[in-house]
Design a protein that fits this description.
The chain has 362 residues and is α/β, with parallel strands linked by helices. It contains 13 helices and 14 strands. The longest helix is centred in the N-terminal third of the chain and has 19 residues.
Amino acid sequence: MTSVQTPADRSAAESTLVVNDERQMVGLLGSRDSLLRLLEDNLAADIHVRGNRVTLRGSAGEVAFAERTIRELLALQEAGSVITPDAVRRTIGMLADPAPGAADSPSQVLGLNIISRRGRTIRPKTLNQKRYVDAIDQHTIVFGIGPAGTGKTYLAMAKAVQALQAKQVNRIILTRPAVEAGERLGFLPGTLSDKIDPYLRPLYDALHDMLDPESIPRLMAAGTIEVAPLAYMRGRTLNDAFIILDEAQNTTPEQMKMFLTRLGFGSKIVVTGDVTQVDLPGGQRSGLQVVREILTDVDDVSFSLLTSTDVVRHRLVGHIVDAYARWDATNSAPSPDRQERRLGRGPSVRGGHARSGGENSR
């Protein structure tokens, strides 16, 4: 690909990109020019395509940004990835709002393949997700902390399967605390195993995305993959294993310490959770919150923080997470008037008359 820049005047600029590979050009434009229309909608520069030439016109800044976007998308193709509408939006988002100290380009983030199965590739989709994946490669214990939909568990599962297939570990151990999120375990039907199964179902679902479903029962029967409640980890030493603790915000500090001290030789631990969704009864403090204070400065332990911008589910999920965060911030501290009523200091007095009712007492 070559580029020719033609400055028209001080307020306008023009640049032409020549894409020599016909397949790359087709991939850049998308089916029926769908990706081209998406680029036109999201970039300020005017885009004109003729043959294998893409001409960009606008202010110098608009043209430079559009050119960099297109170069990143072409680089993504060169790395073996298919350009999707999501990849276009995320590339533009990363370039428009670069993270502080970010050394990775969008094509490096979106082009990192973890595992592939039946033509589907699992890869990070945001810069924080790539940093999280890199941390798993570089550290023995990694904490992935963030809201729902940020891929913390899914990417950890993908790295576990990758490590097993590469024979870096002999087994995968997946665990969760069996804590009710508004439901009662005792009222669920069936045996203890049946009662616990719903808590572990998300882990099974992720496994089915990454491995042939027919092989999973065989691997579980052989002990190569183990899915069990956190309570089953007590008293064990886990060697040569990739261990994932999911929903760790629902561990107590004592349970977290118990789990982390199961680490054996040749093993790796990934702990995932969302500190805003603690379901522990009686206002107990989460072990995931406490461990950040205890292990922050310990060598070979990494904390990866993901935010609503890393949500990879439906776009509304990120907005929902932000809306709840704003609501929590507004409503977490009760007003003095509400606090007085909670403390039983009697009815409020206005205009010299005590009011014992609400709106209906007028």
